[in-house]
Design a protein that fits this description.
Keywords: Membrane, Transmembrane, Transmembrane helix. There is one protein chain. This protein has 157 residues and is mainly alpha-helical. The protein has one domain (17-156). The chain has five helices and no strands. The chain has helices at 15-42, 44-52, 61-80, 85-109, 126-156.
Length: 157
């Protein structure tokens, strides 16, 4: 009897590994947003003053100072609930991409670059902050890929 072995070039993880990785990454992203939101809320005045000092957004500083931590908390809860995990990952990626674009633009046009992100993240240089964000975006995209793959497998069955 001849045996035919089909080689697959696709990377495949077990369901439990996929779930574990997606959950771990979503919790990491959730932790980041809860941590930074908490720091911005606890020291709101400092966060607001930092935003006001950036000419690109100074006029909308008050609105941004309330909106950003609120958005971070909402996205964190979306990442926590399994039913809303996909939308949470998409939203996390969108928000982080927006923050990253803002950092890039600020690095080009702003003379003085105050960081007002909150907590230990403020210790990063702007270039380090940019790469930090890109890393989180990449990890969240990987989690989204895992979640979408699992969803497609469920649909096929």
């Amino acid at each position: 009897m001849e045996r035919i072995i089909k080689k697959s070039n696709k990377f495949h993880l077990s369901n439990s590994t996929t779930d574990l990785l997606a959950t771990a990454i979503s919790w990491l992203c959730m932790g980041l947003f809860l941590y930074t939101a908490y720091a911005k809320i606890v020291d709101h005045t400092r966060f607001l003053r930092g935003l006001e000092s950036v000419s690109l957004i100074g006029g909308a500083a008050l609105l941004i100072s309330f909106a950003v931590p609120a958005i971070e908390v909402v996205v964190a809860f979306l990442l926590l609930i399994p039913r809303t995990l996909r939308i949470g990952l998409y939203t996390f990626i969108g928000v982080m991409t927006t923050f990253t674009i803002y950092i890039g633009i600020a690095m080009i046009w702003e003379k003085k670059l105050p960081c007002h992100c909150g907590g230990a993240i403020e210790k990063l240089s702007w270039a380090q902050h940019l790469w930090f964000n890109v890393g989180f975006i990449a990890v969240a995209m990987f989690a989204l890929l895992l979640v979408n793959q699992k969803r497609l497998l469920k649909i096929k069955k």
